[in-house]
Design brief:
Layout (H helix, E strand, L loop, with lengths): L6 H30 L7 H12 L5 H11 L5 H5 L7 H22 L4 H7 L15 H4 L10
Helix pairs in contact: 3-5
Length: about 150
């Protein structure tokens, strides 16, 4: 029996070929999704407004500190808009109130509230100091952290 006649080799080659076909199909599918999902970018005006808000007296301390890091060149608003640095705990902390507001708006929409009413209501109130019986902001935004592998 030669190398080419071994049925285990033929089976392994067939499995490899099937895996390559599956990979090719996955790549085509991923490219279709990439083309279907609109690219969202922030305009210069959007970036200016973000920066202006982050420098404002009404901005949470964590957001002002994030702006200080941006000023030092550690990262940029464009980086954040492109999804970079989301594993950074300080970035998570600074952006968490916005995530909470989006979650509340989504829930309100799901409940059938008119979008105009949701917009008119404005963003959620800033977080207040938690009591020993209330979860801290860290606990509230656990979903932003990586889950440990099981």
């Amino acid at each position: 029996m030669t190398f080419n006649d071994d049925p285990r080799i033929a089976e392994a080659l067939a499995q490899l070929e099937a895996a390559e076909v599956g990979l090719d199909e996955a790549i085509v599918s991923a490219k279709e999704v990439e083309q279907a999902v609109p690219v969202t970018t922030l305009s210069k005006e959007d970036l200016r407004l973000l920066e202006e808000h982050a420098r404002g007296d009404d901005a949470p301390r964590s957001l002002r500190e994030l702006q200080e890091r941006i000023d030092r060149g550690e990262l940029s608003w464009s980086d954040l808009a492109d999804g970079r640095h989301f594993d950074d705990p300080d970035v998570q902390s600074a952006l968490a109130p916005g995530v909470k507001g989006m979650r509340q708006a989504y829930t309100a929409i799901e409940e059938g509230q008119p979008v105009d009413d949701i917009i008119e209501a404005g963003p959620p109130l800033p977080p207040r100091a938690s009591s020993p019986t209330e979860p801290s902001d860290d606990e509230t935004y656990d979903f932003l952290r990586d889950k440990p592998d099981d």
